[in-house]
């Protein structure tokens, strides 16, 4: 029996809109330890190498990945800045990262993101991210923004870095 429904695979993030609250849930498996994934999300040099779509370059403005710290980065296409983002780190522990995320083009829409690192054993980790926004309309804007491409391209780049022993 063949099931033609799309499946969550190791190389595709599962991105789901919560039906009850204006949240987006992202789940993705990695061939990496929780510590490696944590570092990839907190080390600015590593983060800049994998964040976002393939055709964009990421430049870190500032990065203080600790509880109470803040961050900013921008994306460039062919050397021209096309988007910038900023936020605050609310809680940074080995098990999870809680931060805000704001696209400067939509400053009224702030996402509260919680990332947790589930150790699957055997050098594999499942990353769970929940992004909560202020309304269902804001959530629709995030989902329609090209977010899926940015998430999947970025994680594909992260897979490459991890395979080379970086992170």
Keywords:
167 residues, alpha+beta, eight-stranded antiparallel sheet, 4 helices, globular, disordered N terminus
What layout of secondary structure does this protein have?
Blueprint: E1 14-17, E2 23-30, H1 34-42, H2 44-50, E3 57-63, E4 70-77, E5 80-92, E6 96-103, E7 110-121, E8 124-132, H3 136-143, H4 147-163
Task: Report on the architecture of this protein.
The protein is of the alpha+beta class and 167 residues long. It has 4 helices and 8 strands. The protein has helices at residues 34-42, 44-50, 136-143, 147-163; strands at residues 14-17, 23-30, 57-63, 70-77, 80-92, 96-103, 110-121, 124-132. The protein has an 8-stranded antiparallel sheet. Strand 7 and strand 8 form a beta hairpin. The longest helix has 17 residues, at 147-163. The radius of gyration is 16 Å and the shape is globular. 20% of the residues are buried. The model is unreliable at 1-9 (pLDDT under 50).
